[in-house]
Amino acid sequence: MRDLSPLFEPFTLNGLTLPNRIVMSPMGRNFADDGVQPPGFVDYFVRRVEGGVGLCIGEASRVDHPVASSDVMHAAFHGETALGAWKRVVDAVHAAGGAFMPQLWHAGLLRPPSSGHPQIPNAHLPPVGPSGWAEPLVHTTGWITPITQAAQIGAPMKESEIADVIASFARAAADARAMGCDGVNIHGAHGYIIDQFFWDRTNRRDDGYGGDLIGRGRFAVELIRAVRAATGPDFPITFRWSQWKQQDYHCKIAQTPDELETFLAPIADAGVDLFDCSTRRFWEPEFEGSALNLAGWTRKITGVPTMTVGSVGLERSNWVDGEDFSLTDSGLSSLDPLIERLEKGEFDLVGVGRMLISNPDWPNRLRAGQTDAIRSYSNAHLMTLD
Questions:
Q1: For the CA atoms of the chain, what is the radius of gyration?
Q2: What's the domain range around 80?
Q3: First vs last C-alpha separation in the chain
């Protein structure tokens, strides 16, 4: 294995100095009670900080827009009780020497049409999305899946409704700063509301919020500007985005580097300090003719720092049967290509998800060379907050 020291070099992001490059990636745990995280979440994050993580990003947490979520078990980032629970996490993470950012989220049309179901907050209200046009998930998940085939399940959002959602994100970001968070992570990926504006299959608008790549990015640009205005110039804003969707793992918003530049430049200029570039496997190239992954291309085009993520440290057995993969080691996914890319400056931070579910001390184990003590990831580990 290559020298892992590049993972443990400090990094500064808009005034926030992190002790290393390892970030606990946002992961939905869905243990909330009507949006309020349980007390165990404090120890859950502290264990990861004590285990060597430099920055923890919380799970997708709904903003205060009335139809932001599809389940009462999704975390909320609004209201006195929910914010109080997050404040306890923030204070404990700081006391342990780490940094914390919440992930601000709105499901958009990945919320079922109004049905009266008791698990859906404000279930009498219909979901909202750019055109009211939804695509089915790749893997259905029971009643939560709104449709089984592409369909228009609502009306296009009015500009006043767009403004309401933007204001919700800005309020959440202001609350994050007020409680002492070290920044925010805006969820603009995986087919949720911001990404629904990005994607031409869910954004069929013919006004300034639709059409070409710049029009489809306008919603995100205005949202980021509103968050920046609500938090000030010295508050780190990170933005998660992805080409793939839960509705289509293989789709691309941008088909070429030139299209990527057209799409990302206005978003970067709006005030993003770091792009959290979500891919399913970090080693896979984004475009033909270059080995750069999505984080690499995003950094090259925008000049903005990036974080890579995608199956870091996982074994091949954790990948879906029948899917292609390009890494051929037989045990833990080799970190050699990750370190090589980090050393070349392809990206700045490394997001780790499932390995930190199974191993809260994964960074410390790596640093000490105790790789034999690293537990293989299992979905069974998702059942608790160990």
A1: 20
A2: 5-383
A3: 29
Nearest of 338, 331, 368, 336 to residue 352 by alpha carbon: 338
pLDDT per position as a tens digit, 321-358: 445 444 444 334 568 889 999 999 999 999 999 999 99
Closest by CA position to 191, among listed 238, 236, 250: 250
Is 44 designated active site?
Answer: no
Strands, E assignment, the chain: 11-13, 16-18, 22-24, 55-62, 75-76, 99-105, 133-134, 151-152, 184-187, 237-242, 274-278, 306-309, 349-352
Confidence band, pLDDT 50/70/90 cuts, at residue 34: confident
Residue 118, burial from CB neighbour count under 10 angstroms (0-12, 13-18, 19+): exposed
Task: Give the span between the Cα atoms of 356 and 144, in whole angstroms.
Answer: 27
Residue 160, both tokens: 């006043």
Residue among 190, 194, 196 nearest 152 (CA): 196
Residue 300 identity (one-letter amino acid): K
Instruction: Report the Cα 92 to chain-centroid distance in Å.
Output: 22
Question: In angstroms, rounded to a whole number, what is the distance separating the alpha carbons of residues 6 and 26?
Answer: 22
When divided into structural domains, the chain yields a total of 1
Backbone angles phi, psi at 341, to 5 degrees: -70, -40
Catalytic residue among 44, 192, 209, 377: 192
Nearest to 154, CA basis, from 127, 192, 115: 127
CATH of the domain at 186: 3.20.20.70
Q: CA torsion angle for 63, 122, 209, 213 (degrees, to 10)?
A: 70
